[in-house]
Amino acid sequence: MKHRIVSALLLLATPGIACAESGRETLIQTAFVVRDRDAALAQLASVETASAAALAKAPGDSEAALSRAMATSYRAKLMHSRSDALSAKVQFEALVAKNPRDAEALAALGAWHLSAVKALGALVARGGLGARKAAGLEAIDRALAAGGDRALFPGIAGLLRLAIDPTDPRGAALIAQAAHASTQTTVDRLVQRRAAQLELVLKGGNAKLIQALANRLLPLGQFG
Question: What local confidence, expressed as pLDDT, does residue 14 receive?
Answer without folding.
Answer: 33
